[in-house]
Amino acid sequence: MAAWIEFWIESILFGSSKRNYTLMFLGLALIVVGQGVRTIAMCTCGSNFSHVVKEVNEDGHKLVTNGIYSILRHPAYFGWFYWSIGTQLFLCNPICTIFYTWVTHLSMYFMFSLLTSSRIHIGKLVLLFRSYPTRRIVITARVPHSIRRIHE
User: Fold this and answer.
1) How far apart are CA 145 and CA 107, in angstroms?
2) What is the dihedral sign for C-alpha 66, 139, 35, 132?
3) Are 85 and 24 in contact (CB under 8 A)?
4) The model's pTM
5) For residue 47, what pLDDT is reported?
6) Measured distance CA(78)–CA(42) in Å, rounded
7) How do residues 23-66 score in pLDDT, each as one tens digit?
8) Who contacts 6 (Cβ-Cβ below 8 Å, separation ≥6)?
9) Which residue has the higher pLDDT, 122 or 71?
């Protein structure tokens, strides 16, 4: 809602000068890349993907380390982060671009903190997670300041 309010108020006040085609192209590129990576991540996980953090291992659930997960530890978060910023760049919304970046970054930081602090409850997935090659921590989600070494 805030994005649309900003867009229309700035469009009325600034008219065509609000349109910056370079920013719009960059925003569209981020939207396409972000959504593409997120969709590939969901497809790679198949039935293992959920929008809800699981604290108890379900039968048949496994840690996915192939496909896009061999490159990015959290490709769905990567995609969401850049998609959300891209939407605001595409609309040429300077205020919401900053706000969305801040909110998305904070929410991801708290999500990763929650995952780290609750890993004791995850059961045997912890063993799988620890066996996930540590070199991937360096390339993790490619989101600024999102993850530090979460399992050492």
Assistant:
1) 12
2) positive
3) no
4) 0.70
5) 80
6) 12
7) 999 999 999 999 999 999 999 988 878 777 666 667 777 778 88
8) 91, 93, 95, 96
9) 71
**What are the DSSP E strand ranges found in the chain?**
none
pLDDT digits (tens, 9 = 90+) for 84-105: 999 999 999 999 999 888 888 7
Name the residue among 48, 54, 59 with its Cα closest to residue 121: 54
Residue 70 token pair:
């061999």
Band of the pLDDT at 20, cuts 50, 70, 90?
very high
Cβ burial 126-138 (10 Å sphere, 16+ → b, else e): eebbeebeeeeee
Measured between alpha carbons, how far is 26 from 40 in angstroms, rounded to an integer?
21
SS3 58: coil
CA distance linking residue 91 with residue 23, whole number of Å: 8
Contact predicate 112/151, CB 8 Å:
no
| Residue whose structure tokens are 């929008």 | 51
